[in-house]
Design goal:
It is a single chain. The chain is of the alpha/beta class and 226 residues long. The chain has one domain: Rossmann fold. The protein is 34% helix and 14% strand. It has six helices and seven strands, in the order H-E-E-H-E-H-E-H-E-H-E-E-H. A seven-stranded mixed sheet has the order 1-4-3-2-5-6-7, sandwiched between helices. Strand 2, helix 2 and strand 3 form a beta-alpha-beta unit. Helix 2 runs parallel beside helix 6. The longest helix has 18 residues. The relative contact order is 0.17. About 6% of the residues have low confidence.
Length: 226
């Protein structure tokens, strides 16, 4: 086989792997992001932006509250980038990967940014107990680690002291605090103080955050401060 054909084959395999094998990745609303904006609102997805319907919530067509959409638009117009940060273990529960499932999942993620709900989404699919070997790892981008937020910070040169994080788990607060995010809002729910699997849990001595009754409550508090 000629070197040109080998390179073409390698490129096709690489592109296939990037698209159909889940890993850390981002979804961006290309051409619509104002990169002069240096502050962001980081939002968890399952249980925060929409109801937590279990692993793979997004493929089950979760409904986002209309009032939430309006308030997010107001904050976007006030000069915030809206960024999703999410651990997604959906594929880690599977023993075999269905490429169609990956395609459908990523299509749904792209739809969220294409519809203008968020500007970007940063995703980590890794899990230390994943059934799929290439996802089974202690990833520094999996919350409570701050890798996803740091990724966004480097991409967009964000100012963390002017940014905000909202989530439904204490691990969202840890990731925000470790990133230097000044304002952190935890949405109250029966599982909000649960830890994801992480050895770092024992090393956390103090976490500061505000508690909100709902995402709408958190967004109202943010609006009232600007």
């Amino acid at each position: 086989m000629s070197s040109k054909k080998k390179n073409t084959k390698l490129t096709l395999v690489t592109n296939f792997s990037r698209f159909f094998l889940p890993g850390d990745y981002k979804v961006e609303r290309k051409g619509a992001i104002n990169r002069r904006v240096k502050r962001a609102i980081f939002l968890d997805l399952d249980g925060t932006l929409w109801p937590d319907l279990g692993p793979g919530s997004i493929v089950r067509n979760p409904v986002i509250d209309k009032d939430v959409l309006l308030k997010l638009l107001e904050l976007s117009n006030a000069g915030y980038l809206l960024i999703g940060i999410t651990n997604q273990t959906f594929f880690g529960y599977q023993t075999k990967l269905n490429p169609f499932s990956v395609f459908k999942y990523r299509y749904k993620m792209r739809q969220v940014v294409r519809d203008g709900i968020l500007d970007l989404i940063y995703v980590c699919h890794h899990h230390p107990e994943s059934r799929l070997s290439y996802l089974k790892t202690e990833c520094s981008r999996r919350k409570p680690d701050s890798g996803l937020i740091q990724w966004a910070k480097m991409d967009l040169s964000l100012e963390m002291d002017k940014s905000i994080v909202i989530g439904d788990r204490i691990t969202d607060m840890i990731a925000g605090q470790d990133s230097g995010i000044a304002s952190r809002f935890l949405i109250a729910n029966p599982r909000c103080l649960e830890w994801n699997i992480s050895e770092r849990a024992a090393s956390i001595s103090s976490i500061a955050f505000s508690v909100s009754r709902s995402l709408i409550d958190a967004l109202d508090n943010i609006k009232g401060q600007i």
